[in-house]
Amino acid sequence: MPCPYFFPTEQFARWVRPPKLPLGDPYTGLCHANPASPVDPGEAVLKNLCSLGYARGMCGRFPPESGADAVRFCITEDGDGLIRLLWVREMDHHPCDQGRLEYSLETQAFTTSHPDTIVQQQAQAYVASYVRRRTRARRTS
Predict the structure, then answer these.
(1) How many CB atoms lie within 10 A of CB 33?
(2) Over the stretch 93-103, which tens digit does the pLDDT of each residue have?
């Protein structure tokens, strides 16, 4: 459940032994808590807050009036060339809002998109991590 203001940009190679992470793989990225001025949060904040969510009260950039503390993703279906996933924004570990997205393996693009570019980018990172793991698992079986 990454922070709702975390905009993942690329895999984070320096994380030697990452824990199980909400986006699957570790990612570097930017904090968009102030959309007019995105910032690199730094490695420690990235690892401990951005990647894990629920940073309210712990991160100086987290807006107190925010309607969500974290974003959760879950693959609901993988078949016929489509990956369907559910997204949920949470506050105090309860859903604020939710919806579904669909990703085409053929076009390597979402057939539906989220109006919030941060949630959309997080969904892209989540699906990319899922596809990498899925491909590795098929190669080893």
Answers:
(1) 20
(2) 999 999 999 99
Cβ proximity of 100 and 84 under 8 Å: yes
pTM to 2 decimals? 0.92
For residue 14, give both structure tokens.
């320096």
Q: What is the pLDDT of residue 141?
A: 62
CA 40 to mean position of chain CA atoms: 16
Sketch the domain layout of the chain as residue ranges: 6-140
Q: Is 23 helix (H, G, I), strand (E, B) or coil?
A: coil
114 has pLDDT over 90: yes
- The whole-angstrom separation of Cα 105 and Cα 38 is 31
| Gyration radius from the chain CA atoms | 15
Q: What residues have CB less than 8 Å from 34, skipping those under 6 apart? A: 61
- Residue 54 three-state SS: coil
**CA distance to 16, 31, 46, 63, 88, per residue, from 75 (Å):** 26, 25, 24, 29, 12
What the block records as the tokens of 103 is: 């990703």
